[in-house]
Amino acid sequence: VQLVESGGGWVQPGGSLRLSCLASGFTFSSTTMSWVRQVPGKGREWLSVIYDDGSTSYADTVKGRFTISRDNAKSTLYLQMNSLKAEDTAVYSCGLGFATMGGPYRGQGTQVTVSS
C-alpha cells in the first residue's frame, strides 16, 4: 500500500486548494477512503469519507466548504477545500477506511497553511 498526498501550500483566508492522494498497492475502486488532518500537539481530526459507491460524509467543521471525490481510473482521491480559514492550517493526510490505521494505510501528509 502506498498513499502520496500533494497539493498543499500557503493560501490566504477565504482561498481554495485542492489536495490529491495517489494510491497504489490495493484495489482503490473498491476501498473506502478518508481525509484527516492534524495540528502538531493536537489529535488527529477526521474530515471526510467517500465510499466505493461514491457516497460521502463530512465532519461538521468542514461541511459545506470541503468536497471529497475520487477518480477510480486514476486511483486518486481528492479534497477540494474552499473558504479556507486560519484554523484549517494543518497537515492533511488520506487513508484507507476512516484513516485510523497508521503505517502504510495513511499517507505522510501535505501541509496546508492558511494565513494573511
Keywords:
mainly beta; 116 residues; globular; four-stranded antiparallel beta sheet; 48% strand
Describe this protein's structure.
The chain is mainly beta. Helix content is 0%, strand content 48%. It has no helices and ten strands. It has strands at residues 2-6, 9-11, 17-24, 33-38, 44-50, 56-58, 66-71, 76-81, 90-96, 110-114. A six-stranded mixed beta sheet has the order 2-10-9-4-5-6, with no helix packed on it. Strand 7 (66-71) and strand 8 form a beta hairpin. It is globular, with a radius of gyration of 13 Å. The termini are far apart.
Beta-strand share of residues: over 45%
Give me the count of strands.
10
What shape does the CA trace take?
globular
Q: Summarize model confidence as the mean pLDDT.
A: 96
Quote the distance from N terminus to C terminus.
Answer: 37 Å
Structural class of the secondary elements? mainly beta
Briefly characterize the structure.
This protein has strands spanning 2-6, 9-11, 17-24, 33-38, 44-50, 56-58, 66-71, 76-81, 90-96, 110-114. With 116 residues, it is mostly beta strands.
Could you give the topology of this structure?
Layout: E1 2-6, E2 9-11, E3 17-24, E4 33-38, E5 44-50, E6 56-58, E7 66-71, E8 76-81, E9 90-96, E10 110-114
Parallel strand pairs: 2-10
Antiparallel strand pairs: 1-3, 3-8, 4-5, 4-9, 5-6, 7-8, 9-10
